[in-house]
Design a protein that fits this description.
It is built from 7 helices and 2 strands, in the order H-H-H-H-E-H-H-H-E. Strands 1-2 form a two-stranded antiparallel sheet. The protein is about 65% helix and about 0% strand. By secondary structure, the protein is mostly helical.
Length: about 190
C-alpha cells in the first residue's frame, strides 16, 4: 500500500500540469495527509495497526479508489458510464467523513506512543541544529484537521452538485456511452 500511495503523488503532478481538472493544492493536501497517516503513523507504530479504526480506514480508502480510478480511466478516453459517474460523485459523501474520523483516531492513538518513544522526532543536538517534535506536530495538526477537511469536503460537494444536477433521481443507469454524444433511444 505504501508503494501505491507514493505513486499517487502523480495525481498532484497531473493536476499541476493540467492533465486533469482539479486543484493541485487540494490534491497535494489530500496526498500529504493520507501519506502522513499511512507512512508515519500506521507503518511505524505497530499498535495502531490493530485498531478497528485502521481496518475501517483501509476499507474506506480502498472503496473510494476502486470507483475513482476506473472512472478516471474511462473519462480519459471520453467514455461515460452513468452509474460509475454517480458512484464517483456519491460514495465520498459517507466515506470521506468516516475516513477522516478513522485517520484522526489513528493519529490520536499515535500521540502517547510518540511521546514515550520519540518516534518520528528529531531532538537537539544534531548535525542540522534543528529539532522536530512529532507529538507536538500531531497535536497541532489535529487542531486544524477538521477545518481543512471541511474545505476539501465542501469543494467535493460543490463538484458533485455540478456533475450530478439530477441528484435526487439517483443513478442514471449502468450502460456506458461515449461522452458528448446523446444515448440512443429505442
Amino acid at each position: 500500500m505504501s508503494y501505491c500511495q507514493a505513486a499517487a503523488f502523480l495525481e498532484v503532478v497531473h493536476a499541476a500540469a493540467g492533465l486533469v481538472r482539479g486543484s493541485p493544492a487540494n490534491a497535494l493536501v489530500q496526498w500529504a495527509g493520507k501519506s502522513h497517516v499511512l507512512l508515519l503513523a500506521l507503518a511505524r507504530v505497530p499498535r495502531l495497526q490493530v485498531l478497528p479504526a485502521t481496518g475501517l480506514l483501509l476499507l474506506v480508502w480502498a472503496l473510494s479508489e476502486v470507483v475513482r480510478y476506473p472512472w478516471t480511466a474511462l473519462v480519459s478516453i471520453d467514455y461515460d458510464v452513468p452509474l460509475l459517474t454517480w458512484l464517483r460523485y456519491s460514495l465520498f459523501v459517507p466515506l470521506y467523513p468516516v475516513g477522516v474520523a478513522c485517520e484522526m483516531w489513528a493519529l490520536l492513538g499515535a500521540i502517547p506512543i510518540a511521546q514515550a518513544t520519540g518516534i518520528n522526532s528529531f531532538p537537539l543536538p544534531n548535525a542540522l541544529n534543528l529539532s522536530f517534535s512529532w507529538p507536538a506536530f500531531l497535536k497541532a495538526g489535529l487542531l486544524v484537521y477538521l477545518p481543512i477537511w471541511w474545505q476539501l469536503y465542501s469543494a467535493l460537494l460543490r463538484t458533485r452538485a455540478r456533475k450530478l444536477p439530477g441528484l435526487l433521481a439517483g443513478p442514471a443507469g449502468a450502460g456506458g456511452r461515449k461522452r458528448g454524444k446523446p444515448a440512443k433511444r429505442d
